[in-house]
Amino acid sequence: MHKLDGLPERVTVYEVGPRDGLQNEKAVIPVEVKAEFIDRLAAAGHTVIETTSFVHPKWVPQLADSGELLAMLQRRPGIRYPVLVPNLKGLDRALESGVEEIAVFASATETFANRNLNRGLESQFEMFEPVIAGALEHGLKVRAYVSMVFGDPWEGPTPIEQVVGVGARLLDLGCFELSLGDTIGVGTPGHATALVEAFGSPERLAVHFHDTYGQALANTMAALKAGVTVVDASTGGIGGCPFAGSATGNLATEDLVWMLNGLGIETGLNLDELVATSVWLAERLGRPSPSRVVQALSQKALSQKD
Ligand code: HMG
Ligand code: MG
What range(s) does the Pyruvate carboxyltransferase domain occupy (predicted)? Predict the structure, then answer.
C-alpha cells in the first residue's frame, strides 16, 4: 500500500449496480435475484446501494418490479437504499414503498433531456421542482444527477458552464448531493478536474463515470485530487443507459476498490466478497463481468483451487 498526498482518507462508494447496472439488461431478471444481489452488496460492506427506479415501466421494463422488489428486500439498518424518481407519479410510488432517499436525474443537454425525459433542458425543471419539494416535505433525502457532463452523442462536447448551470440549480432546490454523470464515458482527467473546479467547491459533488473509453478510473483519480469523496460505481462494471446508445458499463466497483485499497483510502468494502458477488451475478446474466479486477481475482481464485 502506498499513499499519495492530496487524496481523501476515506471514500464513499455509491453502488449503482442494481439500478444503472441492471436497467439495460434485455432478459428479465427475477425479482428474487435482484433482492439477493442487493443483500450480497450490503453484506460486502456497502452503505449506499441505489436499488431501483420508479420510472415509467414501459420506458425501462427491467425495473418495472420496483415496488415488488422493495417489498421483498430485507432493508438493513444503517444502509441507504436510494431509488431514481423522475416525477410526482414516481414519487408517489416510491413513498408507497417506504423509501427514505430518492435521486432525480437531469440532463446537461437539450437532446438527452428529450430522449431520456421526454422534455427539454428547461422544462425538465418543471418536472423536478415539485418532486424535490414534495420529497423534502416527506423528510426524504434527495440526490441529483446531471448527465452528459463531458459530451453528448448528438451535440458533441458539453460546455462546462452549461453543466454548472443545471447542477447548481439542482443543489439550490435542496438536493444534498450532485452526481456528475459521464453517461457515455468520453471524459478525460483534465476535463474532470476543470469541471469539479468550476463548481467552486467539491463538497456536495459525487462523480459517476461510465468506462466506455477506459477513462473512468483516471477521471476518478482526478476528481479525488480535486476534493470529491463520493464515487459512483457498479458491480463488475455492468450498466449503461437505454436512451444513449453509445453508453456502456459504469466504472467497476472492484476496479475502484483495488485502486483505493492500494492508495490506503478506506471504503469499508470487502473486495473478495465484491468479486464473489460479481461472479455470482455474471452467472445469472450469462456473460463474464467486464471488470479487469474481477477477471484477474476470479482467475487467481480458480487457479489456486487446482
Ligand atoms: P412521459 O411519457 O412524458 O410521462 O414520461 P407523462 O407524464 O406524459 O405520463 C404519461 C403516462 O405515463 C401517464 O399514464 C402516467 O401516469 C404514466 P396515463 O395517464 O397515460 O395512463 N407515468 C408513469 N407511470 C409509472 N411511473 C412513473 C410514471 N410517469 C408517468 N414514474 C418520464 C416521462 C420521465 C416518466 C419517462 O420519460 C421516463 O420514465 N423516463 C425514464 C428514463 C430512465 O429511466 N432513464 C435511465 C435512467 S437515467 C441514467 O441512466 C443516467 C444516470 O445513470 C447518470 C448518467 O449516467 O449520466 C442517472
Ligand atoms: Mg449512469
Answer: 11-275
